[in-house]
Design a protein that fits this description.
This protein has about 425 residues and is of the alpha/beta class. It is built from 15 helices and 15 strands. The protein is globular and about 70 Å long. The N and C termini lie far apart (about 75 Å). It binds 2-acetamido-2-deoxy-beta-D-glucopyranose (3 copies).
Length: about 425
């Protein structure tokens, strides 16, 4: 009897323990492994109520696809454009992304089961910017993969780190680039990716989040900012636009515009100001360079008025610029800057209007669409969009070997891949 009772309670003890363990395991897997079942699908009301909050979510690289859509509904226009283009063109095949058309500045990668592989890189062993840019692209892409709360599709794609993609005119090649020419039909084949400075821009600024932070902590109120327009830049590129800016501002009391020669040590010492320090001014000027110019996102990060000339090059967030009305977030200029004196004087006289434009820029760009969270969302959406119109890559080559080099290994040296066998 005693023995029977003992047996019963032992079984019930085991039963309760196993049931408890299972419950704990279930809870644990729900809370940690959102890959199999996103939390949003388990708590549909919570998901519907989720709204993006700044600064709570702006540094969260791991928003779900649904959260990305809710937080940044207007971010993915360029991706949708490319998807539509390539769907109409019949999809992307290996021949569209091969790299024989370029000597250097291009990299071919694969994402396979959430691992990043470098399949080919042609950097012509160029030091400096090419490594910085390659590293910037691959690190931001890898960050978006690692922080993804659900698996990304397997894809194979190529990107270019030069300022201009220079796709051949009469082929069907495509590539990811930092910008595309708005009115060149060859540019229609390009997929626009976030530029490398979302990782960092050595010599210009640290990481993007650290630059944002520096501005947030140090920025004066609009009223206390210097009532001048600031610009620094080289005149040996895009002279028509940059030279006009110098001409229209010369000798004006509201001008802090200076040309800058990178090779001149005195210029470097006396004229160079950091991207964060541009925010000390009420007005900033943006100019294109060889193609797009990476400075724009730093200027839009300021609680200031950004003067932007008509653009020829499109970056992934440029469609969010609003030139007029209650949502205005920058001041449009023609490429010859003729209206500059009159517009500056207008905004010096109409401080409230100026401040409204600056408020709009901060709310839309710094706090939302140029946040690190948005950048990771964009990368993941690009990968998903690409997968929708391309073939599925193979992990192994014809000899049964894993293709390429894992990013972890490649990132140690960077440079050409494949390279000659190591002599060791
Ligand atoms: C820039 O500075 C270097 C060195 O002082 C000089 O040789 C070069 O001519 C300058 N370039 C321009 C465009 O002024
Ligand atoms: C505002 O800008 C848009 C786009 O450039 C233009 O189509 C529209 O006519 C402008 N509206 C006003 C009131 O100036
Ligand atoms: C990819 O295709 C799926 C299914 O048709 C669609 O729901 C999704 O929006 C597409 N994504 C992109 C980024 O085009």
């Amino acid at each position: 009897m005693l023995g029977g009772k003992y047996t019963f309670s032992r079984w019930s003890f085991i039963f309760i323990s196993v049931a408890g363990l299972l419950a704990l395991l279930t809870l644990w897997s729900l809370s940690t492994d959102s890959r199999k079942q996103p939390l949003s699908s388990l708590f549909p009301y919570g998901a519907a109520e989720w709204t993006y909050e700044y600064p709570r979510h702006s540094l969260n690289y791991g928003l779900t696809n649904e959260q990305c859509d809710a937080a940044f509904p207007d971010l993915f226009k360029e991706i949708d454009r490319s998807v539509a283009y390539w769907r109409k063109a019949g999809g992307i095949r290996p021949s569209n992304i091969e790299l024989s058309w370029r000597e250097s500045g291009v990299v071919r990668v694969m994402i396979y089961n959430e691992q990043l592989y470098v399949l080919e890189s042609k950097l012509a062993d160029v030091p400096g910017p090419f490594h910085e840019r390659t590293s910037g692209v691959l690190n931001t892409l890898n960050r978006a993969i690692l922080s993804s709360p659900s698996p990304l599709p397997n894809v194979e794609l190529s990107f270019v780190i030069d300022d201009i993609a220079r796709l051949p005119e009469h082929t069907a090649h495509t590539i990811l680039a930092f910008s595309r020419h708005a009115s060149d039909p060859v540019g229609d084949r390009v997929w626009v990716m976030p530029d490398f400075s979302f990782w960092s821009w050595p010599g210009i600024s640290g990481s993007w989040p650290s630059t944002q932070q520096e501005v947030i902590e140090r920025e004066a109120t609009y009223a206390d900012k210097i009532a001048q327009i600031v610009w620094r830049g080289a005149l040996d590129m895009n002279y028509p636009v940059r030279g006009s800016l110098i001409k229209e501002s010369q000798g004006k009391p509201w001008s802090a515009i200076m040309s800058f020669n990178w090779s001149d040590p005195i210029d470097k010492k006396e004229k160079k100001i950091s991207m964060a320090d541009h925010c000390k001014y009420k007005f900033t000027a943006h100019t294109e360079g060889i193609s797009y110019s990476g400075r724009m996102k730093y200027l839009l990060n300021c609680h200031s008025l950004t003067f932007i000339h008509e653009l020829e090059w499109v970056q992934h967030y440029h469609h969010l610029l609003v030139p007029n009305g209650s949502e205005q977030n920058y001041v449009p200029m023609s490429r010859d800057w003729k209206e500059l004196p009159q517009r500056i004087e207008y905004y010096i006289a109409n401080t409230h209007e100026a401040e409204m434009v600056a408020d709009n820029a901060v709310k839309l760009f710094r706090e939302r669409y140029l946040s690190p969270a948005a950048e990771a969302c964009y990368w993941r959406k690009l990968v998903m969009g690409w997968a929708n119109v391309s073939w599925v890559p193979e992990l192994f080559d014809a000899n049964g070997k894993t293709r390429g080099s894992s990013w972890e290994e490649y990132s140690i040296d960077m440079g050409e891949y494949p390279k000659d066998e190591r002599e060791d």
